[in-house]
Design a protein that fits this description.
The protein is an all-alpha fold and 176 residues long. Helices cover 65% and strands 0% of the residues. It contains six helices and no strands. The longest helix is centred in the last third of the chain and has 26 residues. 31% of the residues are buried.
């Protein structure tokens, strides 16, 4: 991984973590919607990141949010699960149909529908794990599922907006 890509990812981590801690952690709409935009950082890490480093990065990312919220590891656990599943879904959804190498999964460099599915699945699993650990009661399963679905949709829309506004297409068009 080149140093430019490392600095881009560090910048993305700092920006998304700051947005999460300063803005999105203070939003809890209707008692069911809690957007977690910082999970986009995990989804957008370079495709050549190995499974163990991915899980460690995801764990650290989640711990940063947990420490800022004084929580006992709910975000870290959910992020670690996302870090584990990311490689599997990246291979099955995005990389299997693309001949060219994709450095970073994003809305501009990956087929649109594949990226939408990939991101939605990661966000859904994150929110399902997070709310299940947070509530930890099967009696509250309908509330967990409702919170998971609504938070996933809102986070998904915010992530697509973030990608559209702040992320540029990395492919260059060559003219001969």
């Amino acid at each position: 991984m080149n140093s430019k890509l490392i600095f881009k990812n560090i910048g993305r981590f700092v920006l998304l973590l700051a947005l999460q801690v300063l803005v999105f952690n203070n939003i809890y709409l209707g008692g069911y919607i809690n957007p977690c935009l910082y999970v986009l950082f995990i989804a957008m890490l370079p495709t050549n990141t190995g499974r163990i480093p991915m899980m460690l990065i995801a764990f650290v990312c989640g711990m940063c949010v947990d420490v800022s919220m004084n929580m006992p590891g709910f975000h870290a656990a959910a992020c670690t699960l996302v870090g584990f599943l990311r490689g599997i879904w990246l291979d099955r959804i995005i990389l299997r149909d693309n001949d060219e190498t994709i450095e970073t999964p994003n809305i501009h460099d990956v087929p649109y529908q594949q990226f939408l599915i990939y991101l939605f699945l990661l966000l859904f699993i994150f929110h399902l794990a997070y709310f299940t650990l947070l509530v930890f009661s099967l009696i509250e399963l309908p509330g967990i599922l409702l919170s998971t679905l609504l938070s996933t949709i809102v986070t998904w829309i915010l992530a697509l907006l973030y990608q559209t506004l702040f992320f540029r297409k990395s492919k260059t068009i060559e003219t001969h």
